[in-house]
């Protein structure tokens, strides 16, 4: 367990010195500002586009528009940013041979996966939560309505989905020999889950519900109990995929 | 209502956004000019992307353009 | 006592058997030169010793403890220097060595002193420069520092000199020699002069087994080919001399090569007398010593 801790510190240093933490934070902070900004600007932009001759009746933007934009960013581009940055985390080390030395020094192979998983997930959580708080602050300031009563209820399914998706990213990276392969595997899984959602019956069980139903949860039109099966399946899948990555690295030639 | 109004009406939103993007661009440009080799692309490409594709250019540079070691 | 033992170790890659029952021991405190052609299986053997490669059958013991694939605890007694070590370029040497030291279980109090001492030994500066700016030679020296960091009982070097220039090579060999007594060294190479220069024992890997395994002196006596080579002023004289010296000799252009057994002093005296009587004066005369290359050629032939 001590080795895992030392490797976690190495991963943190790596993320800091390779600008990964900086990039992911900046991108997500921009997302946090963008949500309320887009909600605020959309009527103005439409007004300008339509010209002065007509005056269209535009409903005033509400906190719903603001949060909608936030979750759209988090669950689409946000996911891809995560994959792009971290899809080379295992494959890069294996192809460069940097692990050989450390393994012969006594680093257990499972420590590599455990540490990378924890550090990646923590960075992503930090980014998401920072972005969430920024969005929250602006939304409360510009749109002080009560149309979004359960703001936290939208966030935590997203965080649980991250548990599984970080595991998929790590597994993809362990499976492939370069970071494009890892990127492709993760994206295919994400698209596959989205397609699976076309079957109405599977919706309650599909992990993708955790990143598609956020607004209904926030507005209060859907209860969390509705997607509870999907939440449990996500947590279980996360554990299985995580364990698979450990098994895979154990067999991998370094 | 014109462009300038839109910005002045929403200063609390625009100021941090602009600061972030300018900061990111400056950081990327400094990094680009202090390094000779890139994982892909060349110096001119990355400078142009950083300047004209905001903020994606700088982000792309840090993720896939910067030489990793 | 043997620090490293291999018993009937076999290894297949697909249907190709690379190691066909490799057996040898390395005595504690010695320098063992592991020689063989490219792709003879030297690197595979070393990776198996380090637990980086599965062992198909047979067993490997380090200090009496059996090595298993992926088991890293025995590794803490072993130092490993790959031919081209790979590092995290964003770290300083000190940070990298700290990570290595932590993983190998050196206590926090000793680690900092130990690192500074190692960096001094390999002549790397202690500053904030990161590894990605290092030259190949500097990386190799850092490699030695990391390999020796944990006072290994056994040091494994895989073709350590192949990436170095002549001066770097010479310095490196001196460093290895200076470690004698502190640690046991196994190093693979195809540069035979390196082996001849520093190793006590030589193992020649050929065709999946160890064809020869002995001290260098013993090998030399065992495979000794005693020869004297005379050179004459012309091919004519060389031919005459060869005729006079009989069937143990043959001429090759201006040279005459004489095979002999027994004491050099006595043989040389009689031969020289014979030549003098026929007024055949050689312009040079050399006693040929067996070198590792001859032995290698003979063993692998």
From TrEMBL, chain A:
Source domain of life: Bacteria
GO molecular function, one term: ABC-type transporter activity
CC annotations in GO: plasma membrane
Keywords: Membrane, Transmembrane, Transmembrane helix
Entry annotated with the keyword Transmembrane: yes
Transmembrane segments: 21-39, 77-102, 114-139, 151-173, 180-199, 227-249
Keyword Ligase annotated: no
UniProt name for this protein: ABC transporter permease
Organism encoding this protein: Companilactobacillus nantensis DSM 16982
UniProtKB/TrEMBL annotation, chain C:
Gene Ontology molecular function: ATP binding; ATP hydrolysis activity
CDD domains, sorted: ABC_DR_subfamily_A
Protein's UniProt keywords contain Membrane: no
Sorted UniProt keywords: ATP-binding, Nucleotide-binding, Transport
This protein's record includes keyword Nucleotide-binding: yes
InterPro entries registered for this protein in UniProt: AAA+_ATPase, ABC_transporter-like_ATP-bd, P-loop_NTPase
Entry's family note: Belongs to the ABC transporter superfamily.
Protein name: ABC transporter ATPase
Lineage: Bacteria, Bacillati, Bacillota, Bacilli, Lactobacillales
């Amino acid at each position: 367990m001590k080795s895992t801790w030392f490797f976690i510190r190495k991963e943190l240093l790596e993320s800091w010195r390779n600008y990964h933490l900086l990039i992911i934070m900046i991108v997500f902070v921009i997302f946090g500002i963008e949500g309320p900004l887009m909600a605020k600007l959309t009527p103005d932009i439409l007004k300008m586009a339509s010209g002065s001759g007509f005056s269209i009746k535009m409903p005033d933007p509400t906190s719903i528009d603001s949060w909608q934009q936030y979750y759209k960013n988090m669950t689409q581009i946000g996911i891809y940013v995560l994959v792009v940055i971290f899809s080379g985390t295992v494959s890069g080390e294996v192809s460069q041979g940097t692990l050989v030395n450390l393994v012969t020094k006594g680093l257990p192979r499972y420590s590599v996966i455990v540490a990378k998983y924890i550090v990646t997930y923590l960075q992503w959580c930090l980014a998401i939560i920072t972005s969430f708080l920024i969005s929250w602050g602006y939304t409360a300031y510009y749109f002080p309505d009560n149309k979004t009563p359960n703001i936290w209820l939208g966030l935590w399914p997203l965080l649980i989905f991250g548990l599984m998706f970080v595991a998929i990213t790590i597994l993809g990276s362990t499976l492939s020999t370069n970071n494009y392969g890892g990127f492709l595997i993760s994206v295919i899984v994400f698209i596959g889950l989205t397609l699976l959602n076309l079957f109405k019956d599977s919706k309650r069980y599909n992990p993708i519900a955790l990143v598609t139903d956020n607004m209904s949860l926030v507005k209060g039109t859907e209860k969390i109990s509705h997607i509870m099966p999907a939440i449990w399946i996500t947590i279980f899948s996360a554990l299985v995929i995580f364990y698979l990555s450990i098994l895979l690295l154990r067999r991998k030639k370094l | 209502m014109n462009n300038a109004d839109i910005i002045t009406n929403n200063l609390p939103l625009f100021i941090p956004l602009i600061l972030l993007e300018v900061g990111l661009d400056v950081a990327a440009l400094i990094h680009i000019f202090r390094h000779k080799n890139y994982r892909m692309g060349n110096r001119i490409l990355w400078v142009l992307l950083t300047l004209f594709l905001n903020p994606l250019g700088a982000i792309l540079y840090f993720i896939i353009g910067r030489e990793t070691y | 006592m043997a620090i490293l033992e291999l018993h009937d170790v076999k290894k297949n890659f697909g249907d190709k058997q690379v190691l066909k029952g490799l057996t040898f021991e390395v005595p504690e405190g010695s320098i063992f030169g592991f020689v063989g052609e490219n792709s003879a299986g030297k690197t595979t053997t070393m990776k198996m010793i380090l637990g980086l490669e599965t062992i198909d059958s047979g067993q490997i013991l380090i200090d009496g403890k059996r090595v298993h694939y992926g088991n890293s605890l025995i590794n803490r007694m072993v130092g490993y220097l790959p031919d081209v070590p790979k590092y995290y370029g964003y770290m300083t040497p000190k940070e990298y060595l700290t990570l290595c030291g932590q993983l190998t279980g050196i206590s926090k109090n000793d680690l900092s002193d130990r690192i500074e001492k190692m960096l001094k030994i390999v002549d790397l500066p202690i500053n904030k420069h990161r590894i990605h700016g290092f030259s190949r030679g500097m990386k190799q020296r850092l490699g030695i520092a990391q390999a020796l960091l944990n006072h290994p009982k056994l040091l494994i070097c895989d073709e350590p000199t192949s990436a170095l220039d002549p001066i770097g090579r010479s310095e490196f060999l001196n460093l290895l020699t200076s470690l004698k007594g502190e640690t046991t060294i196994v190093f693979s190479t195809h540069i035979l002069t390196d082996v001849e220069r520093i190793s006590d024992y030589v193992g020649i890997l050929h065709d999946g087994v160890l064809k020869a395994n002995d001290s260098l002196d013993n090998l030399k006596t065992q495979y000794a080919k005693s020869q004297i080579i005379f050179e004459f002023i012309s091919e004519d004289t060389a031919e005459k001399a060869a005729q006079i010296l009989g069937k143990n000799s043959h001429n090759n252009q201006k040279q005459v090569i004489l095979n002999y057994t027994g004491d050099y002093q006595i043989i040389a005296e009689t031969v020289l007398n014979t030549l003098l009587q026929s007024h055949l004066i050689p312009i040079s005369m050399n006693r040929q010593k067996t070198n590792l290359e001859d032995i290698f050629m003979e063993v692998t032939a």
